[in-house]
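Entry:
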Amino acid sequence: MRKSRSPRRSSYHLFGRSQDPLNEGYCVGFERCDIPLQNSYTHVTEIQVRFAETDAQGIVHNAAYLVWFEVARVDYLATHAGGYPALRARGIEALTTESHVRYLVPVHFDDRLRVRTACRDVRGARFRFEYVIERDGEAVADGWTAHACVHAETFRPTRMPTWLAEAIATAER
């Protein structure tokens, strides 16, 4: 069951309880998290569905959503933090450690989508991106990806560089 709280506080609830993540606070999974609201997604990336992303039934294949999350994440970092090349140039890699997608409404070839993105839970080496994919203002999917900063040569976890944490904090204001 979901405990109701004010929009910027934490809550515990089962995923799938909120049917409209754009207009109501929500969180995916059974976990503690900050509840994002529509206006708290700080970055938007435009996507047009390609024919190659659809299956035999004409519906977008489930794997395409993770690709769109990556496109949005790369765009977010390019806009706010110099992009992945800036990380790699400083000896840091940002690995994806976990991902989750919740499919709400089918998407089809040539649909035009907006991927709303926010970066949350920056702690030590870890951080998390949250996404809502919408078509004409309606949420069609949502989800998140978890990441960890590692040293590019040893692949050992390393604290997120201050410059990156500051860039994310600035973007999320």
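Residues 1-37 have pLDDT under 50 and may be disordered.
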